[in-house]
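Backbone geometry:
***
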Amino acid sequence: MSGDQISLVARNDTIITKLGEKLYKKHGHLEHMYNYIGQKMREMARLLITIREESEITTMEDLIEPSHFPVALKCTQRLCGYEEDTNTYRNPSLALKLGYSLKKCALIQKANALIEEDDDKRKKAENFISVHELMWPNDISSAALTTLKAGKWNKPSPLPLTEDVSKLQTLVKEKLKTLSASLSTGIENSKPEKNVYAQLSEVALVKLVMFNRRRGGEAERLTIESYQQKSGNNAPIKEIEDSLSPMEKKMCSLFQRVEIRGKKGRRVPVLLTKDLIEAIDLLLKARESVGVSNDNPYVFARMNYGSNKAIRASDALRKYARLCGVKQVENVTSTKLRKHIATVSQIMNFGRNDLEQLAKFMGHDIDVHRSFYRLPESTIQVAKLGKFLLALDSGEVSKYSYLAHSMMSLLKMMMLS
């Protein structure tokens, strides 16, 4: 954490450091989660600083008493910018996060009391948790969630333009070919250039993200071990192979498949094209010559100062989006590319089984896919439901009877959402 007053408070409070320890035991094997752990500790430290300004309570351990819960409520509202007149928050997400962390701190206090066989401390922690469960949802969470949802009403959710995506794909394809040839020549002459290696690493990562519509953070952490276990050369089961169409059989011969760690520890697949495999193989051959640390486990590794980290996919996407001159650089992100494919899948009228396969490939379940990724339904709703409602308004429903089944399904979907 940054060396400021907030981190000083976090480091010197027993319960906050215990919270950091618990989170480290859960996520410590993932280096990219270190910032998340520090963020959680800093949030609680900010709350404690606010509490110290409002009362004589100096530590989180002192706070965890049922009689002190109103202080926690008041200080959370102050810290998150609660406005009583409108019942809204300036920072509603922080209010929700503090609620989860505060309960975790109380559970840590309870565990410590059980270990120390301190019944008084245990009862106070248990009662604090009970009061939290009774009061926090109504006093904090309800208004915070309402503020969050209201902020999304009528908010545009722009997706990347097809012409922008096409421009970027064309540039990446050309760069991948020329840089691969240049690095291959350098390897043959035993003098691979660092600049060429760095550019090829970025371009290959952008290609991987765009082709698979994978989250940037997942793609950039593709490890050498996972890549070397790619399953493209494994013979498919005969019954499955016989059921495939000639086109599908051709697809199986063109791609190789790698499994990587996705969000919440899910196993998600990544498909590798022939040119992408050639580029990655070249990167692995040149690693040592350009100065990549031997301890760096990632395919798209940083080569500066013996780093053990990967390059950032978001930075690479933004860089090459600007280079190819897209109109809306801010819309060319891995998240919006994922929402783009999920939205376009509506036009193709996928069945439930196909949707489940797509959702699984993207690394989430089908309910998340329908609720959060298939965003721009406004056009469909206006076009389809507008026709139905006009028929109702004009009293000519019988002329549109063939639309009844599809319209009712669409109305049901809107009501559920």
